[in-house]
Automatic annotation (TrEMBL):
Its EC number is 3.1.21.3. Subunit R is required for both nuclease and ATPase activities, but not for modification. CDD domains: DEXHc_RE_I_HsdR (cd18030), HsdR_N (cd22332), SF2_C_EcoR124I-like (cd18800). It comes from Maribacter aurantiacus. This is Type I restriction enzyme endonuclease subunit. It catalyses: Endonucleolytic cleavage of DNA to give random double-stranded fragments with terminal 5'-phosphates, ATP is simultaneously hydrolyzed. The keyword Ubl conjugation does not apply. It holds the Pfam family HSDR_N. NCBIfam families: hsdR. SUPFAM superfamilies: P-loop containing nucleoside triphosphate hydrolases. The lineage of its organism: Bacteria, Pseudomonadati, Bacteroidota, Flavobacteriia, Flavobacteriales.
Length: 1000
């Protein structure tokens, strides 16, 4: 991949698409008006072939309906076309006898992919408000549905983000193209991200799976993976028909498309549903576990839409069932927004309403909370068991957040009532948190787990942001017996007046403690928002404590606007709480304000409301002063893991001591088959930060920066000049400093709220100024995209604040020199603990080294890369344990070290070893009497003497090298073998010296 430039990546994409059966036509050869983007002759040809019984006049009318869109804005036109593309149009006409005829037409045959014509076209000129030439367009039956935009990976000033930026400009310059666009691909030759044309960059994502069971992590393979994973004809048509939709947010149209985990998870759920539904199956359709914040509600809506369209299900009824009203409202709102997928949605307002809805024979979507399956009181007393409401088999119950209430199988329990009411229904479960093993066996209730998308993968993919954990324990003044019982306490209703829960609530709400916590929260929030704009949630033990916290914060100078979010009971609640009582409409207004990043409402104080089923992506900090456990805890902290603009992480600040419960919840995640910690310990990050500061100070000469602060201006200038000069002495020194300094800045960013870091932030500010000077000299500034304004640097802000960055970066998992794999490093890696991190570290080290070595020894590089992928594949499929995987990875690293050693022993230069291996492999045909090294020297010398700029693109230059090498090999290789060996030598030369003189 290192040889790719913009055009080679583009051409590689064309070749891959041709392998998938696409037809390649150059953009200048297409039959079309440059102002129009639809190939109307192609679409007409498809309609004529697909619907031979429809007369030409009616086909012309259909062609006009598909291509002539009426919306005033491109977003509305795109929405209109998408509905026509996926739902088809109806055409009517009169036959020769005057009889009325009608037909429903689609512009694509979704059932039979080979009945459609797929064209990939490069450099397509389009004349709009400005004239533009697209890199690649894919037409299906003449409709321009997919746009590719490429950028050169070797131009340091551009990246995949620039490709996305160009797509945004295309929307303004050639808007007619986006009337029909379904998917956009932005690529810089290495990274390749897919998204909707109207989406901001943070919503573009890699496609990391070819068939759903695999996950491709290698960034070098992203372009190939998206093409082979999403663009096989059947897969692409399925995605276009079912996995894209538009939401109407009060006139603002938002277009969304599924990510790879949603696509494959839903497809598996469809297959499982069709094979396990009653009466042929046992009605247990399975469980989909997608971690909190990764788009579970969208997945449920898409699955509902697909199942409703399956003809074999004969217009099924889908019951969306949740265990609490707050989840019900949130999910219901999401389904209403996705009405293009799911159709009309009905909401059961009461038990009687639910019974009426389920007693009808028509299909549809019904929302309900599980408690509406209660037993009712009658004139003769309470029902002994739930009545049968429907005996239909085409009835599917889709349970959201399947936890305790789903397992009430005792007499009169909700789960039993559902099954009595709907005896032939089938059940599928969705969850973002693993089910407590003590509650029930999930597979016994819903069937096997169909698909898992865990915390680790979601963070890697950018579907969620990582959550960091910061302990700020403010002790509770409670009696010793309550301290002992603390580990056993369960979350209770706040009306509990006795026992440990009430004691903890009182202790947490003690006036002096609340004031202490309030002061620390405000100080912390101001520090965090000075460098990272966003909002916060405070979680308290009770409504009483929420009001106390609000009052304590309100007294503090500089406190931003806040709101207490809680239920209210005017008949029981004290009048002092009245300002916090809200109607349903007022609560919705507050919710909208908190979700709006520009609104001055910055902090909400909650007990349990908004801790599930509520998304406010701009919220980045949660202050916890309430005991929470298990899935309640995991759901709560997930409120701050949503992706938002340039938000790099969420932060949980703990004032009451939930670290043990976090650890326990983590065990449930990993024990249930998922990977990844929900949070990271702050102490570990602080220790790493201070260690990294020592490393960077050593790189700049081991000077005590505290002494530099006392220099006068002239001394400071001279000192800085000397240091910068030493850091620029060679590329290795420069890159190492920039790499180590970046790691330091990222660590101090994450730990800036910890007092242990405040003492060294002045020193770090000086180091950052040195970094800027080095970068300015090494990489002179030029016109480039404005950087993130929300995250600011120490050198431009108060040194008491700092940027917050992704935790994964603290391990510095890119461009680590292979030389660190020495004996001491191997000893560390072999120690038990943090195996996943060590394996990832080794993978990155080896992979980066392979990128360099691949050019210098193609065959060996491919061999080692295959070994690396094989080991990691086995490890991720659990067929290889972590210790064995580390051993195999170290073996690969040692093989590289042996190559370096062998190079010296043979008296070769680094770039001669590959040619030595090549000739040694063919030693049986060599007639050379002396050592092979002599021939290697002469062959490499003959190649290098004839190199010139862009020689691989010039046939005369390549011919000169072939001739020079041929002279060296003539007489030493049989004539019959000469061309074969010559070809291998030239292939190695192209790989090794293709960028001459850049890598010369």
């Amino acid at each position: 991949m290192s040889l790719f430039n913009e055009h080679t990546a583009q051409n590689a994409a064309i070749d891959w698409l041709k392998d998938l059966g696409y037809v390649h036509i150059n953009g200048t050869s297409l039959e079309r008006d440059p102002k129009k983007v639809v190939l109307e002759s192609e679409l007409k040809k498809f309609l004529t072939h697909q619907y031979p019984e429809v007369p030409e006049t009616a086909l012309n009318e259909a062609l006009a309906q598909f291509t002539q869109l009426t919306g005033m804005e491109v977003h509305y036109r795109n929405w209109e076309f998408h509905k026509k593309m996926t739902q088809g149009i109806s055409i009517s006409w009169k036959d020769a006898q005057g009889n009325e005829k009608a037909k429903h037409l689609y512009p694509i045959d979704y059932k039979n992919p080979e009945n459609n014509r797929f064209i990939v076209s490069d450099e397509v000129p389009i004349l709009g408000k400005n004239s533009r030439r697209t890199d690649l367009l894919i037409f299906i039956n003449g409709l321009p549905l997919i746009l590719f935009e490429f950028k050169n990976p070797f131009d340091a000033k551009v990246s995949v983000e620039n490709a996305h930026n160009q797509i945004e400009n295309y929307v303004l310059d050639i808007p007619q193209l986006f009337d029909y666009n379904a998917i956009c691909i932005a690529s810089d030759g290495m990274r390749a991200l897919h998204g909707m044309y109207s989406s901001s960059f943070e919503w573009y994502a890699p496609w990391k799976s070819l068939e759903g069971d695999d996950t491709q992590q290698d960034e070098d393979l992203q372009l190939e993976t998206v093409l082979h994973g999403l663009f096989p004809k059947e897969t692409l048509l399925n995605y276009l028909q079912h996995f894209i939709f538009h939401e109407d947010h009060n006139g603002k149209i938002i277009k969304k498309g599924a990510k790879y985990h949603q696509y494959w998870g839903i497809n598996k759920a469809v297959a499982s549903s069709l094979s396990n539904m009653k009466p042929e199956g046992d009605g247990r359709l399975g469980v989909i576990w997608h971690t909190q914040g990764s788009g579970k509600s969208i997945s449920m809506a898409i699955l509902t839409g697909i199942l409703r369209q399956r003809p074999e299900l004969k217009n099924p009824t889908i019951v969306i069932q949740v265990d609490r009203s707050d989840l019900d409202e949130q999910l219901y709102d999401n389904f209403i927004l996705a009405k293009d997928l799911v159709g009309n949605v009905q909401h059961a307002e009461s038990t009687d309403d639910l019974r009426d809805l389920l007693s009808t024979d028509g299909g549809g979507v019904i929302f309900t909370t599980i408690e509406k399956f209660r037993l009712k009181g009658t004139d003769k007393g309470k029902e002994l068991q739930h009545p049968i409401l429907s005996e239909r088999y085409n009835l599917i119950v889709m349970a959201d957040e399947a936890h305790r209430t789903q397992y009430g199988f005792e007499s009169g329990g909700f789960a039993q009532n559902i099954r009595r009411a709907l005896p032939n229904a089938s059940f599928i479960g969705f969850t973002g948190t693993p089910v407590d093993s003590k509650d029930a066996d999930t597979e016994l209730v819903f069937g096997k787990t169909i698909h898992t998308y865990d915390i680790l993968q979601a963070v890697k993919d950018g579907a969620t942001v990582p959550i960091h954990y910061e302990p700020k324990m403010v002790p509770l003044n409670i009696k010793a017996e309550f301290t002992r019982e603390l580990e056993e306490v369960e979350e209770r209703d706040e009306d509990t007046t006795v026992g440990v829960w009430a004691a903890i609530e009182d202790a947490a709400g003690a006036e002096d403690r609340v004031e202490t916590v309030a002061k620390d929260i405000l100080k912390h929030f101001k520090t965090r928002t000075a460098t990272l704009e966003g909002k916060a949630m405070i979680v308290c033990m009770s409504r009483r404590n929420c009001v106390k916290m609000y009052n304590a914060l309100s007294k503090l100078e500089g406190c931003p606007e806040m709101a207490v979010i809680m239920t209210s009971n005017p008949g029981k609640d004290p009048k002092e709480w009245n300002p916090h009582m809200r109607t349903k409409n007022a609560m919705e207004a507050i919710k909208s304000r908190f979700r709006n990043p520009e609104d001055p409402l910055k902090i909400v104080i909650v007990r349990d409301m908004w801790l599930t089923g509520f998304d406010a992506p701009c919220a980045h900090t949660m202050y916890v002063d309430k005991i929470m456990k298990g899935h309640n805890l995991m759901q709560a902290i997930a409120r701050v893991n949503r992706v938002f603009e340039n938000k790099p992480n969420g932060l949980v600040v703990d004032f009451i001591g939930i670290s043990g419960y976090l650890a326990e919840a983590t065990k449930k995640y990993t024990g249930s088959g998922g990977k990844g910690k929900p949070t990271i310990d702050m102490d570990e990050a602080v220790e790493l930060c201070l260690e990294q500061l020592s490393i960077v100070k050593e790189l700049i000469g081991g000077v005590e920066l505290s002494e530099v602060m006392d220099f006068d201006n002239i001394q400071k200038m001279k000192w800085a000049g000397t240091i910068v000069n030493s850091l620029l002495k060679d590329d290795t020194t420069t890159e190492n400093f920039l790499k180590q300094e970046r790691k330091l800045s990222e660590l101090v960013a994450m730990t800036s709220s910890d007092e242990r870091i405040w003492e060294v932030q002045e020193e770090i500010g000086i180091i950052q100024k040195l970094r800027e000077q080095v970068r300015k000299i090494k990489y002179p500034p030029g016109p480039q995209r404005a950087k993130n304004e929300r995250i600011k640097d120490l050198i431009s802000k108060s040194l008491a604040s700092q940027a917050i960055v992704d935790l994964a970066a603290m391990y510095d998992l890119d461009k680590i020199d292979i030389s660190i794999i020495d004996d001491s490093f191997q000893a560390i890696v072999k120690d038990k603990g943090n195996e996943n991190i060590k394996i990832e570290l080794l993978r990155r080290i080896i992979n980066d080294e392979l990128k360099v070595r691949m050019q210098k020894n193609i065959k060996k590089g491919k061999k080692l890369k295959n070994e690396l992928e094989k080991v990691l594949g086995k490890y991720h499929k659990n067929s290889l344990d972590s210790i064995a995987a580390i051993k195999h990875l170290l073996d690969i690293a040692n093989e590289m070290k042996e190559d370096d050693k062998r190079t010296k022993e043979l008296g070769l230069t680094e770039d001669e070893l590959a040619f030595y291996d090549l000739l040694s492999a063919n030693s049986n045909i060599l007639n050379e009497a002396g050592p092979i090294q002599d021939l290697v020297h002469s062959v490499v010398d003959s190649v290098k003497k004839n190199l010139q700029l862009d020689w691989t693109k010039k046939e005369n230059a390549k011919a000169a090298i072939r001739l020079a090498v041929k002279k060296e090999l003539r007489g030493k290789v049989p004539f019959s073998e000469l061309d074969k060996l010559l070809k291998e030598v030239i292939e190695q030369a192209e790989g090794q010296y293709g960028e001459w003189p850049l890598s010369g």
